Amino acid sequence: MQQPLDSDVLVIGAGPAGLALAISLGQAGLSVIVLDTQGRAALSAPKDDGREIALTHDSVALLKKLGIWPRLAAHEIGVIREAQVHDGGHARALLDFNAQRAGSGGGTGVLGWIVPNHALRRASFEVADALPALRIVCNAQTSQVRTLPSHAEVFFEAEPAPTGGDLRARLLVAADSRFSTTRRQLGIGADLHDFGRTMVVCRMQHAQPHGEVAHECFGYERTLAVLPLTGDASSVVLTADASAAAALMALPAADFTALVQRQFHDRLGRMAMAGERHAYPLVATYAHRFRSMRSALVGDAAVGMHPVTAHGYNLGLQGVGTLAGRVVQAHRAGQDIGAASLLAAYEATHRRHTRLIYHGTNAVAKLYADKRAPLRLLRQLVLEGAQRFPPLKAAITRQLTGHGPFGDTALAAPTSPST
Ligand SMILES: Cc1cc2nc3c(=O)[nH]c(=O)nc-3n(C[C@H](O)[C@H](O)[C@H](O)COP(=O)(O)OP(=O)(O)OC[C@H]3O[C@@H](n4cnc5c(N)ncnc54)[C@H](O)[C@@H]3O)c2cc1C
Question: What DSSP character marks residue 350?
Fold first, then answer.
């Protein structure tokens, strides 16, 4: 006789994407088990990892619907009203995006919001942990996943031993980062692009107000982004070749601060570090398939974006909305939630939403990392061309606010996107 199933869905990875999917399904009445290698303390109170996540209107609408947004503290939610792009040594912006002027952003005048990654993780964990239909297994090391026509199975070890074993469900979802081992165990390959560059991120206080303007300064040695947080604080993001980034990490705080101030032409006055520096080697990944038998990939496990266009988690949430919508629909209709046709439809939609922006982002990242003179000229022409061509600017602004050509306005978003 066949063993009963342990849950409707198994999710591997309790990161922000895996938890958003688990919450979407749990709130719709499906039973979900989430496994993560990390312990409960690390998942419930994640450490500051220096990442500040810019969120589109669609993402915020989904986070509100899931009950994650109200669990963020006011001081954790920054607003971006304008974004300016500077090239090389130019202090003047060559290109700027403003939701108000573009008539985008749903009348709020807001391009997007910005929230610390650890706060998103903490709030997601709180909501997931409180859902009766959802169980989180911490300290779980998956040794094998198996998918059969009838169900999917995960073998794992957990601490304290002997709490491991195997779990069975109708559908298995891999949400275990861009270097997903579950993806590999499912036999799904991925294209990997190592940019050979590293992002150094750090929170800084400053004397002058930022005016809720985000800046992207494409320098010839390193790129600098300065993103407005609440109060007189900004997230400083430097991107450089791996060896130069190692040197940036090792610089005394005063020298690091002076370098940032100089590259930013002292726009924010005197600056001071308000946190540790964190380094992220830049590797983008795109899975060859987003599904296999009774299994699907979400979040970075499906598409691991270069952070320059701030789309990784936004696309992850878009995929969560697409997959959850289809699974809940099938569940309510009494149909198979792991059916091949359902998973194929998810894959087709998510590929359509991500492919162009993934390759476009990689092209931009490569163009702006190249110091050769013809490419410097080309990027200046691109920026000036975009500034002088209002329809293109308006399209990019709509994309930033989550209502662009790649945006999925069908994403479940019944709540108002206003703050
Ligand atoms: C510097 C930086 C800035 C960024 N800025 C933005 C931004 O502005 N906007 C934006 O939208 N995105 C941004 N991103 C991207 C965003 O952080 C990611 O897209 C997002 O964190 C992906 O979430 P995830 O849940 O898919 O994966 P992760 O956050 O990687 O979480 C994966 C989870 O899986 C667990 N896990 C791993 N392996 C296993 C295993 N074998 N078994 C069980 N569990 C496992 C891990 O412990 C972790 O909890 C940025 C990224 C970086 C690096």
Answer: H
Residue nearest to atom 39 of ligand 1 (CA): 176
Report the topology of domain 192-282: D-Amino Acid Oxidase; Chain A, domain 2 (3.30.9)
Q: Which part of the chain is CATH 3.30.9.10?
A: 192-282
R_g of the chain, CA atoms, integer Å: 22
Residues of the chain with CATH 3.50.50.60: 7-191+283-400
Mean pLDDT within 308-330: 96
* Cβ-contact 171, 10 below 8 angstroms: yes
Q: Which CATH number fits domain 7-191+283-400: 3.40.50.510, 3.50.50.60, 2.70.70.10, 3.20.20.140?
A: 3.50.50.60
**% pLDDT > 90, the chain:** 74
Question: Residue 292 and residue 184: Cα distance in Å, rounded?
Answer: 11
pTM above 0.85, yes or no: yes
Nearest to 229 by CA among 140, 330, 113: 113
Of 72-86, 167-181, 248-262, 398-412, which range is least confident? Answer: 398-412
Q: What is the pLDDT of residues 367-383, one digit of tens each?
A: 777 666 555 666 666 65
What pairs with residue 272 in β-bridges?
205
The answer to whether the CB of 78 is under 6 A from ligand 1 is no
pLDDT recorded at residue 415: 28
For ligand 1, mutation pick of 68, 300, 309, 400 (most atoms within 8 Å of CB): 300
